[in-house]
Amino acid sequence: MAEQHTPRSLIVTLYGAYGRAPDGAPLPVAELIRLLDAVGVDAPSARSAVSRLKRRGLLVPARTAAGAAGYLLSGEARQLLDDGDRRIYARPAPLLTDGWVLAVFTVPEAERHKRHLLRSRLGRLGFGTAAPGVWIAPGRLHDETSHTLRRLQLDSYVDLFSGRHLGFDATAEAVARWWDLPAIAGRHEAFLAAHEPVLRRWEGAGPAAGGGTPRDAYRDYLLALDSWRHLPYVDPGLPAELLPDDWPGERSAEVFARLHARLRDPGLAFVTPPVSAG
Fold first, then answer.
1. Mean pLDDT of 247-254
2. Contact criterion met (CB below 8 Å) for 96 and 242
3. Helix (H) and strand (E) counts for the chain?
């Protein structure tokens, strides 16, 4: 199945990759449309997606120094992207000695909508389900979990615990119950199917090595990043000794790291001159 890149997701990915200028300059609307066109998003779809992100409070209207209409990231959006950087770009090697963090929650029936929100948010953080109302993740995710629950004002419903798994099943067997490992592996394999050939093309030998223009680098990088940035949340980074021998996660992380190293800066050449001129 072909990958799906929604306009809204691509805008978030674009701002995460290239839209956090130290001087806080907004991205002009005309340039935002140009940059999205390079990854296959037409102008009406781009404008519609921008409007939705604006309504959600993630983009804020602003004027460039030349007076052109543009958009800045809101403070909330910038915080979300900064938090995401630690997962997307600086993923540490998972260790069994990290232990586990458990989230145990109770939500009154009158507020059951928050129960759904809690489950959804813990799942998006990479937690597995150990038992009804008991969710588990690698111990290093404690700080991010605590910060996220406080930001969403859900912390009063949750108790967090740190600990080790002492039995009775082998931890690897328990992990296979807590997480849907085949589904996670499938996400990694889909990423590899879409983007490993791109890496081979850019790293190929001969006169065509390098793959193409700054526009090509920008396009291939943004599409890879848009696919990859969700994976470190689906896959929380479990220790290798708890995973199947043919686990594709390390390979997909390596492919993304090499694409990032090769394409991010060349892609910037497609982004920077027009934006600077605005």
1. 93
2. yes
3. 11, 7
